[in-house]
Structures are given as structure tokens and as C-alpha cells.
Amino acid sequence: MGNFSFSTLNYNLAWSKNMADWGRLGATGKIWNEDFGGSSSDGWAMDIGYQSHTLWSFFDVGAVVRNLGPKVEGDPLPQSWAVGSGMIWREVTFLSELDFASHRDTALRLGLEYSHLLFSLRGGYQNLSSDLDESISRFSFGGAFKLRGFHLDYSWSPKGDLGDEHRFSLNLSFGLTPEEKKAQALMLDQAMNRQREKLMATYLKSGKAAMAKENWEKAVQDFTWLQQWDNKNPEINKLLITARQKRKISKANAAYLKGFRLSKKGQWLEAALQAQVALDLIPTHKKAKELKRRSQEKLKAPKTDQDFDSGMRHFLNARYDKAIAKWEKALKKNPKRTEIRTYIEKAKRIRAEQRLSQIQKKEQNLKDELTNLNQKAYTLYTLGQTQEAILIWEQMLQQDPRNQEALSALKQAKKKMELMGSTEKSHASSKVERLNAQAMEAYNQGNLAKAKKLWTQALRLNPDNIWIQNNLNRLEKEMAGR
What we know:
Layout: E1 6-18, E2 24-36, E3 39-53, E4 59-68, E5 80-89, E6 92-101, E7 107-116, E8 119-127, E9 139-147, E10 150-158, E11 164-172, H1 178-212, H2 216-229, H3 234-264, H4 268-281, H5 286-299, H6 306-316, H7 320-333, H8 338-382, H9 386-399, H10 404-420, H11 427-444, H12 448-461, H13 466-480
Antiparallel strand pairs: 1-2, 2-3, 3-4, 4-5, 5-6, 6-7, 7-8, 8-9, 9-10, 10-11
Helix pairs in contact: 1-2, 1-10, 2-3, 3-4, 3-5, 4-5, 6-7, 7-8, 8-9, 9-10, 11-12, 12-13
């Protein structure tokens, strides 16, 4: 029989381009050298392939042309072209291919791969061309191990009389692979989610501590911020309602007590004003009503003076400019009434305090606006609209360059954009984004069953999406509590 040796040396250089919703285009250049029993040959060829998205994000189709190149020692290369499809469900990939060749019959190939973390297991079947021995097994098996830029593949397939074929391939790549980029992007999402949860936990703790100290203003501020993040959370809503009610009662009682103390000093104008503040908060406050009545009796002019009485009404309704104008008019008519001059000075002082309060309120409104912008940016980020979220965080920093929340979130979001590139929004992610947005709308409308269905569909397309997982878990808890 005798023995012979056979060896093959291949060099491949591959290029690919992701064209977002259009699909992916790729090409491979090949150079080889074969030595078969003392006879050798070498040559080069090229493969070109295209993979396209379909209406279903989990299902793709593609086509490839193989061995485009010059003849080798006068013989044409065994050219072929194939069409195929692939379907991904969680960690399992199904593949099928029809291969049309110039040198043999059409072949059907089927494949199955299960991947988990660093390992993959594979199985295949092919309907070999009719000119080969039918006893040759049509099944093959293999596996792979991947770690960063190191990729080891192994496959086994029987070759009849030639024995079993074992193939090993080792690939070394530089830079992050798509899977590694996806993993790092997921880690960034998880970090952003932890940061958001940490902020919410901080405000919840702060709000409860403020309630324990009866600092109702601080409690309302913290719970209002939390409600903007999670407006369906029953605990937060209940705490906010309680804090608002307590704040109103506390403010009304404080105003009444202040007015009562002022009345004891004979400062009836200030007493009447404080009584009115209490009544604006709680119109049924009996003690405040009585204090206002007594104060007005004490302040009533000995003789009918419409300007003085009109000024008093304006004063009690916080219209200080009009009150001052009416009292100045009354003072001109009766300069001897020195108490009017005192009232004018008090009205001017309170007006100045009011204007200062308005300035402080504008500053608080700016803080509230920044909080709303931050919440909106996080929402866009959870929907996959990272670039839009970045623009909002940058807008926040234009208003408050030292805002630590915006600085931290912006850094994480930009890092994710660098990992995912400008084509972050693929066909699949676009559909996940639409489903998530529809689920949020259904949830806000109270249609929990529809929201659950939509979030479940989105999670099937992207099982690693931490934001959808959180939304679905919260929804299921809420539905279980009803």
C-alpha cells in the first residue's frame, strides 16, 4: 500500500463592515500552499459575503460567493455560491445553507450551536453530493473556547475509509471583539443602573429621616424627586402624600402661632398677615379665623377710611404694592395717623423679603429643572437612545458645570458609545427600543397586562438588557400585590 504525507498552509485576511439596518458586508482574502506526496501548489482566492436583516430581529439571511480567483496550474478554482439563514434564540443558534457548486451537486447543510460564556458546543449535518460514498456519515461535532483575543476551535467529522478528521484552529485578534464590546456595554449599563438605584436609595433614606425629624419641606423635596423616577411606586406615592399633608398642617400651625405671639405684643398687622397665611393653607383653621377677625377689629380705622381699609385687604392678600399705594394715599389725607406710616414700612420690608424669596425660588426651580433633565436622560439611556441622553447631560453641565451626577453619567455613556460605535442602534435594538417605549406607555396608562407582554417580548430579543429586566420585575411585583 505505501504511505504518503499531506500538508496545507493557509493565510486568511478578513474584512467586514456593519451597515446598521442595511446588514453586514464582508470579504476574505486567502493564500495557500499545499504539499501532497511531493507535489505542491499554491494560489490565492477571495470570498465575498453579505448578511441582511429581516422583519424579525432574531432571523437573518445571507449569501456568499467562494473562491473567486485565477486558475491554479491551468485548472479553475472550485467556485461555489450559497444562500443561508440563521436564527438566534437566547444562547442557541440555528443555521441552514444551500450550497451550489461548479464541481458537484447542490448540498444542504444544517447547523446548531449552543454558546455559554467562554464555551460553545456545535453539531452539524450535511447532505453530501451523490458522487460520494453514501456510507460516509453526514454528521459532525465540535466546540470552541474564547477568551479575549484568543479563540480555539475544534471539529470532528468522519471520512469513511480515510478515517476521522480532526481540525484545530487558533485565532488571535487585536482589540475588543463584538462580544466583548457587548459585554463591556452591559457592564456599563449595570453600573448606570446601580448608580441610579444608589441615588434613589439615598433620597429615600434622606426623606424618611426628614420625616422622623418633622422636616416636612425636606421630605417633600426628596419624595418628589423619587416620584419623578418611579411614579408608580406605591410606597413613594404614599410617603409623598403624607409629607405634603404634614407640611401643610405644620406651616399653617406655625403661621398661626407666630401671629398669636405678635397679637400679644399688639402687632396686629403682622398678626393678621400670619392668620391669612394659615387660612390660605387650611381654610377651615378655626383659630386662624378668630385671630384674623380680632386683628382686623383692632386695625379698623376709627372713622370710615376706604383707602386704609382697601390697603388692609391688599396687604392680607399679599398684594403689597397696592397696599402701600392705598396707605400712602390715606396718609396724605390724614398725616397725623402715624400707625399708617408704620404699616407702610412693614409692607415695604415684607415686599423686599418676598422678592428675595422669589430669587431663591428661581434657584430652586433651576435645581428642579436639572433633576428633571437628569431623570429624562436616564430614561433615554434605558431606551437605548444613548446619544440623546448624552446631549441632555451636556445641557445640564452647561447650566451647572460641577454637577457630579451629570459628570459621572456622561462619562459612562460616552464610554458605551465608544464601545458600540456609531451603529449602536441595530435592527434588533431598534425593535427593543420600540417595544420598551410601548410598554412604558401602557404601564403609565395602567394597562399592566399589555406592558408585561411588551416587556417580555423585548427581553426575548435582548435578554441582557438590565433596564427591561428591572421594569419587568417591578411590574410583576406590582401585579402580584394587587
